[in-house]
Amino acid sequence: MSERRKRVSLVGAPTDIGAGMRGASMGPEALRVAGIHAALAARVAEVEDRGNLGGPGNPWQKPVSGYRHLPEVVSWNLLAFEALHDVLAAGRLPVLLGGDHCLGIGSIRAAMRHCRETGKHLRVLWLDAHADFNTPAITPSGNLHGMPLACLCGMGPTELVHLAGEPGRLPIEALRLIGVRSVDEGERRLVHESRLEVFDMRFIDEWGMRHTMEQALSGIDENTHLHVSFDVDFLDPDLAPGVGTTVPGGPTYREAQLCMEMIADTGLLGSLDIVELNPALDERNRSALVVVDLVESLFGKSTLMRMG
């Protein structure tokens, strides 16, 4: 479906419940201030803003049995799951405005149910400086924003592995991790054992973003639902400092633009997360403005002088 025919719904999830630092709860409003509605309205048939989900506050407690704020994380992900599935069922493209990356559990679960209902194949592009494949046994923090992929792949608490009673796990072969450059030692072993397909920054340095995206997008077709989970710390912190877990050496502006443009070229984008934007750590909303610019490219704005 061309961008001009797509109907987009913005859903805010103002929470930092899974993070180790406060502030990502302000991300949805920062994106709105940066003009995400107007930017998308120039690219698609229709944009609606469904406002913010209303979930539990952040109690800021220590981990219990290896997980911080597990009941609250479950509540927020159930809200995200239900809201995004409703958007997909209405034939619209959901854009989740986060919020921290634990929300990826609910959003991707919604995409999984939608694919099961429509007979589509799911491909998930996880744009992130981190693998987010931790478990309580291998992480000291217990912060659930470092565990969403492990939970989706069946390694986590039952409440999140089977969120909303959903059957099945996210198949490893549906996942592509891009931009990774910070992985805990135990997490690295688990990633290798699970045979995740990871295009880390060394791969991007050696092969370039074009080849990286060709590999990450290989095998998709018109029956593919493409879900992009965009953690703002995917970007180099010189470009986007407003995140709680900055990691130097990320993609440059042009590399990030090419990544987004190549996704847009497929015409298969079906759902999107924007997470981990932390305005408390930003510089005059600079990171949000960069993100909105990149999201425009994800929806078809090209920097190249091409016809069409």
From TrEMBL:
Organism annotation: Viridibacterium curvum
Reaction it catalyzes: L-arginine + H2O = urea + L-ornithine
Annotated pathway: Nitrogen metabolism; urea cycle; L-ornithine and urea from L-arginine: step 1/1
Name of protein: Arginase
Highest classification ranks of the organism: Bacteria, Pseudomonadati, Pseudomonadota, Betaproteobacteria, Rhodocyclales
Family the UniProt entry places it in: Belongs to the arginase family.
InterPro entries cross-referenced by the UniProt entry: Arginase, Ureohydrolase, Ureohydrolase_dom_sf, Ureohydrolase_Mn_BS
Cofactor: Mn(2+)
Listed CDD domains: Arginase
EC number: 3.5.3.1
Keyword field: Arginine metabolism, Hydrolase, Manganese, Metal-binding
PANTHER family found in the cross-reference section: ARGINASE
Domain of life: Bacteria
EC class of the enzyme, as a word: hydrolase
Cofactor note: Binds 2 manganese ions per subunit.
